[in-house]
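Lab channel / #folding
Pinned by the channel admin:
"Please post every new chain as: sequence first, then the structure tokens as a reply. Keep commentary short and put observations after the output so the thread stays searchable."

First post following the new format, from NK:
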Amino acid sequence: MTETANARKIAFASFVRRALDEARATRAWSGTEVSRRTGVSRQTINRWVRGDWASDPEAERVVAFCEGLGLNPAIAFAALGWDRATSPRTTPPPPPMDPDVEALLRRLVDPGVSDAEKFHIRETIRYLAYRPTLPVEVRKRGKEAS
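Reply from TO:
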């Protein structure tokens, strides 16, 4: 293996490790959750972390990994030594964010907010994000009864 190829593997492995550490620290995501959110298998992510790949990772997987974690794919491409300023897949702009959600996100990054409060905010958001949605008929019945 050439010195350049080895350096690229180390740089990309470092990028992936930092991304995983960030997901664990800020979102309390496990490796399984990262895999689910990004669509990249745990095995592939583990190979990336170890630098255990014979040929370059597929651009689509790198982009999916980055998008799932809210990262700019250009950073991953730079770590891989790819000369790509933008991702191969164009992504639509995100929809406008609800003001209440923006307020919660501001609290999560505010150094004046306690870790306990941030934990409570994350747990509440996680609960709301993954609770089962009621069927339309049940929601309609609830409105009629009010």
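NK: The two ends are 70 Å apart (CA to CA).
TO: also worth noting, The chain has a mean pLDDT of 85.
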